[in-house]
Amino acid sequence: MIDLSYFQGGNCFSAMCFSYHLKKMFSCLQRCLNHKGLFRICGSVTKIKALKEKYDQGEEVDLVNEGDVNSIASLLKLFLNELPVAVIPDYLYNKSDMADRPGCTLRRLLSSLPKAHYSLFHFLIRFLVKVAAHSDENHMTMENLANVFGPTLFRPPLMLQSNDMLQNTSAKKKRKERHT
């Protein structure tokens, strides 16, 4: 059971009933683990918008008949992106110094997550391991999945994102200057 009551929002798509809808999305995607480009190929914007609107209005959604694999996968990513708080909250970024201390492990950091965050993270990771197990067919290796879900799970504050972009741009310029 995924207890996601912590993730409250202004509509059904991101409110408590999200646990039920999330399970339905995972269930549909579970049957399509061999689908080439799962999570990498975008679904129909029109379908995604229509499905999201139904969720937001509290209507029953028949993902099997109203969606397709790519739209359901895109809807799941959208859902995770629209959570009011990222699965791995930004306050963990302030604890980055913990990684330098002896005895501080990833498990210990994850155990500091609120229960709802940990439940969702654990459920999602277990699902993504299944997706990666079919990477020969779907081309979604662990690395590809990390590229797709990393920015969603670890939404750094805008300031950190801006600083990183500036630093990356400046570092690239310096490297380019050295090679010219």
TrEMBL record:
It comes from the Eukaryota. This is Rho-GAP domain-containing protein. Pfam families: RhoGAP. Residues 2-180 form the Rho-GAP domain. InterPro entries: FAM13, Rho_GTPase_activation_prot, RhoGAP_dom. Coiled coil: none annotated. It comes from Podarcis muralis (Wall lizard). GO terms for biological process: signal transduction.
